[in-house]
Amino acid sequence: MAWRGYLVQRLTFFFYSFLILLVLNFLIPRLMPGNPVSRFVNPLMSPAAQHQILEQFGLTKPLYVQFLLYLKGVFTGNFGLSFLYYPTPVSTLIVQRLPWTLFLTGTATVLAALIGMVLGLLAAWKRGKVDSAAVYSSMALRSLPTFWLGLVLLILFGVTLKVFPTSGYFSTSLLTSGGGVLLFIQSLLYHSVLPIITLMAYLVGGNLLIMRASTLNTIREDYVTTLKAFGYDDGKIVYGHVLKNASLPMLTNIGIQMGYIVSGAVLVETVFSYPGMGLLVYQAVLARDYPTLQGSFFVLTLTTLVALLVVDLLYGLLDPRVRR
Amino acid sequence: MGKKRGIGRTALIVIVVVIVVVAAVAAVVLMTNTGKPTASPPSNSTGTGAGTGGSSPSNATLTTGFFEDVTSLSPVNWFTISDLDVLQLIFNTLVEVNASGLPAPGLAQSWTVSNNGMTYTFNLYHNITWQDGKPLTAQDVVFTFNYWKKYHFPYYAALSALIQNATAINNYTVQVNLVHPDAGFLLDLADLGMIIPQHIWQNITNPFNQSNLIGDGPFQFVSRTPGVDIILKANPHYFLGEPHFKYLVIKIFSSVDSALAALESGSVNMLELPEGTSLTQLSSYPSIHIVDTPSTMIYYISMNTQTFPFNNTLVRQAIAYAINKTAILDLAFLKQGSVANSVISPALSYWYDPQVKNYTYNPSLAVQLLKEAGFSNSSGQWVNSQGQQLTFTLLIPNQAPWIEIATIMQQELGQIGITVHVQAVDPTTWENIVIGTHNYQMTLGSWRLYFDPMLFLEPSFDSNESGPNGLNFAVFKNSTVDSLIQSAIYSPSLGTEKGYVYQIQAAVSQQVPWIMLAYGQDIWAVQGYTNWQGVPRYGLWYYTNFLSITPTG
């Protein structure tokens, strides 16, 4: 019964968030000053021509008609034609871009979670110098602006040392020279190293601190003392018992990180000219490309909402107290 | 309880396995790449072409970068200058321009103009084919002109209104009748008039949503990944001969830093540097060469001539004398470019009048003009008889070089007692205010001029263009200039038009709706190729340059 109530509560929350998202998603791009045509303006573009492009873009229709068309589009998966890459459908752009962002941020999140957990656990268990080093370095990593770190890595490893590429997601010469699948995958991984490290740097710090705090709480529990008293070795206690109990807060943290990942990806993808959703959003904002903004915000926020829902449900599953 | 603890152990194993796998993959990737000389080598000079020897078009790739992606790749329904830059490599125009910016043969090898300036007869080259093998004929040209007239494409409104009708006299001769004489017609065709194949476009029912990139130019379209790159391939059947390299890759960079990094790492061969880029860092790379090309870019201060304090010509002239253009050129443009006098750039050498009055820095003359304008200086502030203070807001886009220029101006005008408030807004907001509503006092701007000066002078200074969204955002209303503009547009010959253009330059300079600051200079960083040849306005980005350059080594 309790579980069912919890499920209904979470789903209702999800539903209302989704409705608000739908409206904001339509309004926010339109509240920005300027219009999608202003960037085309030059001495050849007469006011009549500007109006004509607005008409092509469907922006001369009344706002409520635009909203209804948008709602219809959302439920049929048709977000319209991009203004920035006219006349490419927004759905095509998202299908092209989303996998790259999921690849970057997914890899970065998983690696950062694993590394953060292990290091946080060690820091809390060992204390002393290891602990101080871990805490100070993660504080430092968390304070570095992501785009700045990206630029530093870019200049150091891309320009000075020339060990990593400076931009893009794979080498274009593969297209013109024709390369095998293996070469392609290699080029892909090679291009993703710097962006992933940049994204991870921020996440690892946060994960480490949370894991450390949670471990410190856990190891004060009576059962740990008991296990110690029974003479279990450290490894068994830490990895067999403390790890699982201390990991719970990590789950929430990863869910919350999904939100950061979206904004972090904007900066990192821009620095590395990495063609993911972040770069698409950045370019669409500059161009006031309403359909692309609606489409990509919709997908990104839905991803975050779903991630939060899954975390909530998992949490309820793992910790029965939450359900009450 | 013991069983549940087992999950922790499994998790641990999974963690270790994942970390090991990732580390192994990273190691493999690193090891296989450390042997390579550059980070992401395109096959430019080190490419396969060197080994084959002799065969003229090598398999080399020329990689270049854009800071702004193209929007619409349609030869009729294009939107931005980047679009046009790419399209002009795929589609040729009937007429081109030479190094002085005057009409030269394109698809048409010659032409004649009737005495009244209203009938143009073009003779096409006979050996031109479309990239699908079909011949290009006079019917394609006629079809293109009619196509512009049938649909209302954003950039073809003026041309389609000007063309009365076009007929194919035979397969290679086209006769065009204009509604009125317009000497600029040939120059407009050179800038915009890309010819499209009839056999393809006659089947396209909605040219606003559909496009086709079979052209007649030196490059064929291969692929485009939005936000990433555009790949073009040399056209082996191009009627003026094939380019000396095989692929032209245009990478889209989201920031100047990443483009410069790519240039320095050797993965980009050609890059137009944004204004004010420091060249000292780049010149430390022996392989990178800097090429200057004449630019038609003009930088100016625009004032709303209908509102206080700039509704007084004397005040505008005073401000013009109070600004040290040389200091602005040195500090904001790092001396790249030259001080401007006329609204026409000297890169359009046929049209530019070097005698146009230059407001040379002279603060005491500025003070004198302010007094003539009825202002008196009391306790460090200029006030007129109605008690209005001479302070105003300078609205600028929050980007280089505007912020630097505004800071210098603020300081210089401050020295003679004029307080300037600088308001920096994002570029779209700026366009919305300045071009949309004209609700500003003073602003800074730049234009890249077209070959036909009237395409710029008419929208910028004709009083009919001063309404909302009109480009006469100085809201400049002067009947003499209006009638000069009309006479220039209706000129039967370029010589007559030139006379009027000279008069417009003088009149605008005297009335100063705009204070001209600087003429730009296009600076390109290039490597791996030789024989670069620039033209005005397009710089190195012109098909003739892409036909001339050859890979080194």
Description of the structure:
The complex is a heterodimer of chains A (324) and B (553). By secondary structure, chain A is mostly helical. In chain A, 77% of the residues lie in helices and 0% in strands. Chain A is globular. Chain B has helices at 2-34, 49-52, 81-90, 138-150, 157-162, 185-192, 198-201, 256-264, 279-282, 313-322, 325-332, 363-372, 402-415, 427-437, 454-461, 479-489, 494-511, 543-548, and strands at 61-66, 95-97, 103-105, 108-113, 119-124, 163-170, 173-178, 219-225, 229-234, 247-252, 270-273, 289-303, 338-339, 375-378, 381-384, 391-397, 419-425, 442-448, 514-526, 529-530, 550-551. Mean pLDDT of chain B is 87; it is low at 1-8 and 26-56. In chain B, β14 and β15 form a beta hairpin. The relative contact order of chain B is 0.14. Chain B contains 18 helices and 21 strands. In chain B, strands 11, 12, 13, 16, 17, 18 and 19 form a seven-stranded mixed beta sheet that branches. In chain B, strands 1-10-9-8 form a four-stranded mixed beta sheet, with helices on one face. A four-stranded antiparallel beta sheet of chain B has the order 4-5-7-6. Chain B has 553 residues and is an alpha+beta fold. In chain B, α10 (313-322) runs antiparallel to α12 and α16 runs antiparallel to α17 (494-511). The chains are: A mainly alpha (324), B alpha+beta (553).
- CATH level-1 class of chain A: Mainly Alpha
Write down the overall geometry of chain B: globular
Broad shape of chain A: globular
Determine the strand fraction of chain B and express it as a percent band: 15-25%
Quick check: average pLDDT of chain A? 84
Determine the number of helices of chain A (DSSP H or I, runs of at least 4 residues).
13
Rounded mean pLDDT score of chain B: 87
Biggest protein-protein contact in the assembly: A-B, 79 and 90 residues
What is the fourth-level CATH superfamily of chain A?
MetI-like
Order of helices and strands of chain A: HHHHHHHHHHHHH
